[in-house]
Amino acid sequence: MSFINKKWLDFLELDIPETVDEFEQTLLAFKNHAPELQAAFGIDGSIIPMSCIINDGSQDPALLINGFGEGYGDGDQGRHIAVTDEGKVICTATRQGFKDGIAWLHKLYEEGLIDPEAFTQEWSTYVAKGKSGRYGVCFSWDVANIDNITDWVPLPALTADTRNITPENGSFTSGYSRGRCVVTAVAKEPALVCAWLDQMYAPLQSPQNNWGTYGEEDDFDIFEMGTNSLGEPMLKHASLGDASPVEVREAEAVGGPLAVLDEYYGRYVTCPPDAQYRLDWIRESFTPDMNSKYVYPNVFMNREDTDRLSVLTPDISQYINECRSRWIMNGYTEKDWNEYINKLEAYGLEEYLSVFQKYFDAFYQ
Prior knowledge:
The structure is a single chain. By secondary structure, this protein is α+β, with helices and mostly antiparallel strands. Helix content is 39%, strand content 8%. It has a four-stranded mixed β-sheet with strand order 2-5-1-6. A hairpin with a 5-residue loop joins strand 3 and strand 4. The two termini are 32 Å apart.
């Protein structure tokens, strides 16, 4: 998700931008009024109008270019695919909207509006600068991971040629994850191993696998053990204070196989407040502009096709992401673009898309 510093907007008497042109002017205002912002809010360090981590999923600014061209954007940095309303799987990174959107991001970069470290910084650096209050716009699953939720609001879709958000692939069929655990031939007693794995699905254990545990003598306790209205044991999400929700979860969560069902909430576990406010943000700020009929679903492919994609995907995805970074930083020519398209075709883009199309069609049949 994209977020904008509402405290800075209010100080400079600016509205939340709605178009790409208004967004550019807002970033310029952040840059041009840097001394006032530093003085007003006690910011130690330079003002960064917009920071992100290019090609890093939730921290990538892909959402900004969703309004260019036909509005497909390029939100899937792992596979770079989307589905048209006619049910055709396409490569988002070969569309006109991608081409124009990347050129616009390069313009912002040339104007000094994008963090120059956006291409190289790691998560810890990104967060450290955010916690120093230096960002005007940032990107993450939860802005509380980067700064705080008090001074920030979601930045809705920007209008360019159209106004659209392509929902994340798999989001209509999410909740199913393959490969959380494997029992191999090395196991001397596979029945015993599987019996142990069964316990991961116990209603009080799965939430701990997903979020973390309780009763530990450290700084991270994501749960407190309490009781529900029936007097039964119930995991209750503890207050995290100023801690980053994702960092607490990563430090505590067991991972592995789990199941957290709708009916568990209010009986075995509470709904975490950070998840609820994220759902509210999505519903209020982003869902109104989600106009796509399809997203690519979670599908299980046979071994042959899985193996073939494992050969095709690295070259295609890595090359696209390399060009994304290079072009946002340095720009591109028509010759560069034509060579890019030709190279993707040589990497097997047509076959790559045909595999995804095969399983999309099967899913909806």
